[in-house]
């Protein structure tokens, strides 16, 4: 009896089209965010009482329990579901955790140093993007929408300030752990892991996928007036992963960005430094131009190093 030639098994995720994968990922994200928000509200109400629950959602920092309640809300309603969604999606829906989570640690360690250099040298570019973004205004017929966006951003800023009232080094380290590390892992698994992989398979163009993912990443944060710098960060993170093949490169970059902001805010609040973290007029035009040149050189070196070439060769 002649046996039919054996065929290599196809990835389970290939049975689901990229478009349907995208819809499932969005639905799963929204669903878990809602469920975990309800759970977080219930826990806050049980531990701190109904008044603190109300004060938490109105950012009444006069209530001494609001800070702890906000951290509870952040971890349970946001960080936890953003971590669970990509893990569930990659392992149980598309069943391709290696391709969709990219947790391989196999990449040249020097890439971490290059990422650190890129993040430091990108500060002037980010300042330009922040200033440009702040000057953007919606057309007159959408003035009410712009006012609503500004109000939402002001509320988000109040929540951040309430959470980041760091009085001790322990407070700072806790914020670095949650805002820096845990948030970086959760968001990178979701965006540069699952979503970017879906977009690459959907568009067939890795560069388009990186930019689309970066735009969706920025839109997810619902902060219109910091939209452009967050898109730029998303693009950096996307190329770090695409060239290295590992999610840990973008996690490292994301951690550096978030943790640095926390540490600078702490040092400023403790009067250890005079640089105001909200000051967006630190650099000059020469710094902006030099920043762009250095970033391009470092990205060129990163790509070649990740591909196993000499850093200075094409």
Please bin the fraction of helical residues: over 70%
Element order: H for helix, E for strand:
HHHHHHHHHHHH
Report mean pLDDT, rounded to a whole number.
90
From the spread of the alpha carbons, the general shape counts as globular
Describe this structure in words.
This is CAAX prenyl protease 2/Lysostaphin resistance protein A-like domain-containing protein. It comes from Mucilaginibacter gossypiicola. One of its GO terms (biological process) is CAAX-box protein maturation. One of its GO terms (molecular function) is endopeptidase activity. The protein is mostly helical. The chain has a domain of 202 residues. 74% of the residues lie in helices and 0% in strands. It is built from twelve helices and no strands. The termini are far apart. The N terminus is likely disordered.
Using brief descriptors, characterize the structure shown.
12 helices, CAAX prenyl protease 2/Lysostaphin resistance protein A-like domain-containing protein, disordered N terminus, Rce1/LyrA-like_dom, mainly alpha, 314 residues
Per-chain topology:
Layout: H1 18-48, H2 50-57, H3 66-93, H4 97-101, H5 110-121, H6 123-135, H7 143-163, H8 169-203, H9 206-220, H10 227-244, H11 247-269, H12 285-306
